[in-house]
Amino acid sequence: MAIPGERMLPDEVPVALTYNRDTYAVMLASPIDLEDFAIGFSLTEGILLQSAEIDDLEIVSVETGIELRMTLAPDLALALATRRRRLAGATGCGLCGIESLAEAARRLPTVETSGKFSPADVAAAMASLPAAQALNRATHAVHAAGFWTRNAGLVALREDVGRHNALDKLAGALARSGVAPGEGMLVLSSRVSIELIQKAAMIGIGVLAAISSPTALAVRQAEAAGITLIGVARSDGFEVFSHADRIEPEALADVG
């Protein structure tokens, strides 16, 4: 028997990221934490090296969506003009609209961090996600990216219909709060594809744990970038796909 009811659905809107009034990318995103999104996208895409390089940031609602209007110093704007790419990003793809195959496998900085974690740390980090996913509890339809440290637990978490957007928002939140990405673990509620590895490398995160499996390309990219990639992280164990040296070796035999 059919029963009428109501369900809260997540929203997604076109969000344009502009620099000095020139549009660089248009993404479909959840219309929350947009200042974090603007800053994080700028950092993970290598447009800026630090958030302080944004002179001004304005969030403007327009008839067709939302514009994140960032103002850069003239020299930065000129440098950006030489490498601009236009994106029309769907929620499931962080590489849509790139202009060459080389951009899909861009050279990444090597992440160097000496921080190590135990299997218990990985379990605690993953277990901290559900309670902080307020939007997902209401809609059952969005991704989360969180940052966990041994001393402070879950430091920050951001949600979005797009997993890459959620990571961009988290990157912006960490930059605004001055948290050092190399000191903790990135935890994701999604599978791991190449753009998530690329974004993690750009902000210097050395350990990434996700509830689902990575793609083969993501594993190769994580290996090359020096990132410890953990997948299939569930209550009964996890799998380490690259740079297992950051997981404390005395307990590796107990990891499923």
List the helices and strands and how they pair.
Blueprint: E1 13-19, E2 22-29, H1 34-44, E3 54-62, E4 65-72, H2 74-81, E5 87-89, H3 101-104, H4 119-127, H5 129-132, H6 134-139, E6 143-149, E7 153-160, H7 163-177, E8 185-188, H8 194-203, E9 207-210, H9 216-225, E10 228-234, E11 237-242
Parallel strand pairs: 1-4, 2-5, 8-9, 9-10
Antiparallel strand pairs: 1-2, 3-4, 6-7, 6-8, 10-11
Structure, described:
- Helices cover 30% and strands 28% of the residues.
- The chain folds into two domains: 13-104, Roll (Ubiquitin-like (UB roll)), CATH 3.10.20; 119-254, Cytidine Deaminase, domain 2 (3-Layer(aba) Sandwich).
- A hairpin with a 2-residue loop joins strand 10 (228-234) and strand 11.
- It starts with 12 loop residues before the first strand and ends in a 14-residue tail after the last strand.
- The chain contains nine helices and eleven strands.
- It has a six-stranded mixed β-sheet with strand order 7-6-8-9-10-11. A five-stranded mixed β-sheet has the order 3-4-1-2-5.
- The longest helix is centred in the middle third of the chain and has 15 residues, at 163-177.
- Helix 8 runs parallel beside helix 9.
- The radius of gyration is 18 Å and the shape is globular.
- The chain has 256 residues and is of the alpha/beta class.
